[in-house]
């Protein structure tokens, strides 16, 4: 089934939802979801692998396709256009701009432009880092974990150097490719800095928050706890890599991380304790 035929359509959605087989809809529509593609057709449930606040994600062969979120029954604005679709389409366009700013990189899920209302990404066969770790926890060594943490920090450093602030690094946008290499995706919350401006001191707080997000993932994977990182009063420094997590929670003026490169150096120092190369 070609993506262009199933998913790519006019940017302005049709005024009424459609289904490929109306009898299925009358029978309860078990084959179809509540989500619509840009042409107004209900999307088959079997193709959907996830959704967020502004987009729905489908798998089509070796690719993943992200569409603006549009549900059956969404309300329309005064002009007759669906309000949610218009808002979510703008969010998708912004995300495409982020991918274009980042370009091709070993740290970014490969992207291609599938049309104004479609974002096409390469399917990552090993899913999210946290999901893979949860399924294979017993077989994963501390050395492998360190490699992943270092890759994640390096990926974030690359994004920052490209003039982009992530603003939302979470379990769902840190993926693993077929070689178990970290790749970043889902840049809906990211902020693009003007090319003539670049990251500067005025962006240090946002950079610091991105680094905290990275160390939060480190915390969750090393402790098995889903909550936020605790302070040293709760024994954080006594945990493995606790000194790194503690530094991430320290204010920048007090020695906290102001640049992802500093986190990379600390992770490389930890790897040296295992007598291995990064």
Automatic annotation (TrEMBL):
Keyword rRNA-binding assigned: no
Residue ranges of domain Protein kinase in the record: 43-278
Sorted UniProt keywords: Kinase, Serine/threonine-protein kinase, Transferase
GO molecular function, one term: ATP binding
Entry superkingdom: Eukaryota
One Pfam assignment: Pkinase
Coiled coil regions, renumbered to chain: none
UniProt keyword Kinase, yes or no: yes
PROSITE patterns from the UniProt entry: PROTEIN_KINASE_DOM
PANTHER family found in the cross-reference section: SERINE/THREONINE-PROTEIN KINASE TNNI3K-RELATED
Record's protein name: Serine/threonine protein kinase
């Amino acid at each position: 089934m070609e993506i262009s035929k199933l998913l790519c359509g006019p940017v302005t959605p049709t005024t009424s939802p459609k289904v490929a087989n109306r009898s299925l809809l009358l029978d309860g529509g078990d084959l179809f979801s509540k989500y619509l593609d840009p042409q107004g057709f209900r999307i088959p449930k079997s193709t959907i692998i996830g959704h967020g606040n502004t987009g729905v994600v489908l798998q089509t062969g070796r690719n993943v396709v992200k569409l603006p979120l549009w549900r059956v029954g969404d309300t329309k604005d005064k002009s007759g256009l669906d309000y949610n679709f218009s808002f979510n389409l703008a969010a998708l366009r912004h995300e495409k701009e982020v991918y274009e700013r980042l370009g091709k990189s070993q740290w970014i899920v490969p992207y291609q432009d599938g049309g104004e209302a479609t974002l096409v990404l390469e399917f990552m066969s090993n899913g999210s880092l946290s999901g893979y770790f949860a399924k294979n926890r017993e077989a994963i060594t501390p050395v492998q974990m360190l490699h992943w943490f270092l890759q994640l920090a390096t990926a974030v450093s690359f994004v920052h150097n490209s003039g982009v602030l992530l603003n939302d690094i979470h379990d769902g946008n840190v993926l693993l490719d077929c070689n178990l290499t970290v790749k970043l995706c889902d840049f809906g919350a990211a902020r693009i800095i003007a090319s003539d401006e670049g990251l500067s001191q005025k962006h240090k707080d946002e950079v610091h928050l991105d680094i905290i997000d990275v160390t939060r993932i480190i915390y969750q994977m090393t402790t098995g706890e889903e909550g936020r990182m605790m302070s040293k009063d709760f024994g954080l420094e006594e945990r493995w890599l606790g000194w790194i997590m503690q530094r991430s929670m320290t204010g920048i003026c007090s020695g906290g991380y102001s640049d992802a490169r500093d986190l990379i150096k600390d992770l490389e120092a930890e790897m040296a304790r295992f007598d291995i190369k990064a």
